[in-house]
Design a protein that fits this description.
Four copies of one chain form a homotetramer. Chain A is 20% helix and 39% strand. Chain A is of the alpha+beta class. Chain A has a five-stranded antiparallel beta sheet. A three-stranded antiparallel beta sheet of chain A has the order 2-7-8, with no helix packed on it. Chains in contact: A-B, A-C, A-D, B-C, B-D, C-D. The interface between A and C is medium-sized, with 26 and 27 residues.
């Protein structure tokens, strides 16, 4: 079973079309990613440049299937998979909860571990590599 | 005891200073307001113009006491109080959780119930008035 | 020459890694899309459900090449292309301006014209179809 | 004449009520502040912790007078004023442009210059003090 994150759609997530703004969908997935890392004991702050390592997103893809509205209850699954020794992908499914669960969006991000000092790709830290493998 | 909402600070809440962007602090409080309404059985969608009623925010004030960082755990309290028959205020305290809880911000919003068709202030719907009184 | 939109990176676009949050990159492109529609005399409000028509984004893809920081000056090009009688794609290039222009991101969105009353795909309104063709 | 910043309301600024989300109003004012600093030759990055100095916002107040919609053209004026040797306020007026200009919001922020190493208030850097005085 993949890790999943529960989330309610907030007014700030929506736009004047009455639904979640498409780019916010990616932010919701990133929250689920952050939550999944935290659940594995990883601290996102370690990958924001505090150490020599950053793990920026190099690519995103999203298919928007069904609009989401204020108050909708979501379950966002998080499934990492390795791409190489210094990169990984994460796929997300955003399910709208209710009597019948419905797929709202499918998202995929790619992340590349980078050394700030060497300005090149570098191996994932062991704990992050373990998180990817466990996915 | 006021209603309170638990929230973790997300990367999308922060800015390049490494802390929550000041305007996002108000969005965090609005989430807590939405959650408090939902807990009382109220649907925010009813106040977004679907019916004749909107309840826009007419004023906000915020005192930012301590910066918040990615991963910080927050408890946001929500305390409504009546201003008149067609307006109310909500005060929020954002506490940063930890061995010692610390006040991060104190926020206050004012909300005015408005009839779209009459283009003037109107009485709060009974369920919303009850939520304000219960605060 | 494709339409292009000039934009400065703002603090609110960035995150605690010191750079533009990946999902905000898509929002920057959407601004450029809005600006391109406006330059062609089209009003985005007409596609938000005020009439029977909405034109939601069904898919997005983004390749993030170089990070962007507060104050960076950007030129975002907007190139629409038809996918069918009721759908189109838009490709965007975000160039970071400077002594040497550098590609920061390449983004693509797909948009599907939908009738709210019929709950199915419908032909693009003539003015929007003309904007796509002119791309 | 105070500095002013021209801005068009974007879809990402709005929420499901069809208007600019109240907290985004403060972000619009911060953009105008950034633009005013840049026009005076100041680089916001210098106040984000790169040097020993940060200038966080300690308080905000906003009065929301008229709702703003996608495509609305705005002029945001920026008027700084000193509070002390290490603090200043900025007042903003957001005018909605049109045949008759209308005040949409009035906002005020307070900023406190702080030394990261000393963890206490410190004097404004001369260039920033000059910007405040010129306001």
């Amino acid at each position: 079973m993949p890790f999943s994150h529960l989330r309610t759609v907030r007014l700030a997530d929506t736009d004047a079309a009455g639904v979640v703004f498409f780019a916010r969908t990616l932010a919701l997935c990133h929250e689920a990613y952050e939550e999944s890392l935290a659940a594995a004991g990883l601290d996102l702050n370690d990958f924001l440049g505090r150490a020599d390592i950053i793990v920026p997103i190099s690519r995103s893809e999203a298919d928007y299937k069904r609009p989401l509205r204020v108050g909708d209850k979501l379950r966002i699954s998080v499934t990492p998979s390795p791409l190489s020794g210094n990169a990984f992908a994460v796929t997300y499914e955003i399910m709208k909860l209710g009597p019948v669960e419905k797929l709202s969006a499918r998202v995929r991000t790619e992340h590349v571990c980078t050394s700030l000092s060497k300005r090149e790709r570098t191996a994932l830290p062991p704990a992050l590599a373990a998180w990817v493998q466990a996915g």
